[in-house]
């Protein structure tokens, strides 16, 4: 069974670079990657915050959050 | 041909978590992942700095640097 990975971003240039090179680099045989644009999916900001996302882009992998570089603070997306 | 990815770290807990879950999540059919412990391989600190590494853990992927969370500043490893 594949593990779900969620890539949270906000459409910023830093986010796009991370998505293009990073989220796509994950092993597709092991991970189902969902890409969530928090600027467009406002309803999911609270979910991301509860999971521990402090800034975007961020990758949620098996319950852990990895903040990748820095695009925008989660507060700016509420 | 596989792309080389370099995971720079310094043995800190943040680094180890990122290595275990993150570097290992990359697609092994597309990436050859080299793990470099900058605390032990001091000679490679300059290489990492030239590539743009500001802190560890960091992943170098096709010329771009992705800083993942924050373990230690590169200055602390010189």
Q: What integer is the average pLDDT of chain A?
A: 93
Sheet with the most strands: spatial strand order of chain A: 2-1-3-4
| Largest interface summary | A-B, 21 and 21 residues
Largest sheet of chain A: 4 strands, mixed
Shape of chain A: globular
The oligomeric state is homodimer
Determine the strand fraction of chain A and express it as a percent band: 35-45%
> Which regions of chain A have little confidence, pLDDT < 50, spanning 5+ residues?
none
Structural class of chain A: alpha+beta
| First-last Cα distance of chain A | 33 Å
The count of helical stretches of chain A stands at 2
Rg of Cα set of chain A: 11 Å
Q: What letter string, H or E per element, gives the SSE order of chain A?
A: EHEHEE
| Strand runs of chain A, count | 4
